[in-house]
Amino acid sequence: MNDSARIAVVGAGWWATSVHIPALLANPAAELAALCDADSQRLAAAAQEFGVQRTYTSLAEMLAHERLDGAIIATPHATHYALARACLAAGLHVLVEKPLTLYAAEARDLVRLARAQGRELLVGYPWSYSPLVVRLRDLLASGALGAGQFVSCVFNSYTLNLLRGDDHADRPGAYRVHGPGAVYSQPQLSGGGHGHLQLTHSIGLMSFVTGLRPRRVSALMNNHGLALDLVDAIVVEFEGGALGVLGGSSNARPSNLDLQIHCERGALLLDMLGGSARIHGADGAVETVQLSAEDAAYPAAAPSANLVAIARGQAGNGSPGEPGWRTVEVLDAAYRSARAGGQPVLIDELYAGEPLHSAGQEAA
Hints:
Shape: globular
Order of helices and strands: EHEHEHEHEHEHEHHHEEEEEEEHHHE
Number of strands: 15
Strand order of the largest sheet: 14-13-12-11-7-10-9-8-15
């Protein structure tokens, strides 16, 4: 297939207007076919800024009238499931921003639907496209270091203002069109705080690199006066017996994203924000890897570029749905555990007949 991939963007918020829309417009293999957002004012502002002609406030109307190859879902977390499901059911390849969904049953449903439809489901985890991350994943998958036994995964950052509902949009040049507003301070839109806003990055990275599947989760969280969690501490037992400690704070300076994987015959120590790693081999040798500044930069546009290449039949899925699903399992169980004072939650309990949650298709 040599024609341009016709891609729609669902959600005209800050991340779409900062990353996805500019990336599609700069990609000669892509055509930004349509833009959809239930907020007509936000939609009009984005369309004017980027010269988008075909706009919709209804996803159903867009899917009925547009010939599309793929869609990017960049809306509040609570709306991801219904919107992504509708796009997959319409036969599109779909890129969903992280977290994939708020609930494990929803994430599993999307992964299964994508398989049934013969379409690719991508999750917006740009670190999955880092050459260093891919190398570490392949090394673990080769079995050279044996089975994983202990994982430490920590992400500290400063997003306290967002969790307070202040996006600093009044600062000159803060956002190209508009900021996120107070969305990250509202549980009905974002689910949780540091977990769903930030730990989704680090747990998604861990899931992609290790392939580990959680079995049981215990967690404590502290809001420190906010509506959502600011500091999280999570303990995970994985299938096969590996244990993990995951967590971090959204009130931390400086930021760090560190992943350590200790295996039967070696270890991988990754400093993601520093673009470096130490590989401790089975023979005792230690290799230090440092990415160039270019390769270490956050590849924000990589997921959308991958979606375009997939739609044109030119690439495989670099950020597949299953690690995103496993990430949702950890977070879903962690929030349940924290609400129960740290009581362990079995992953199987997440699928115990509860109805799928949905914020509706028109909440773009």
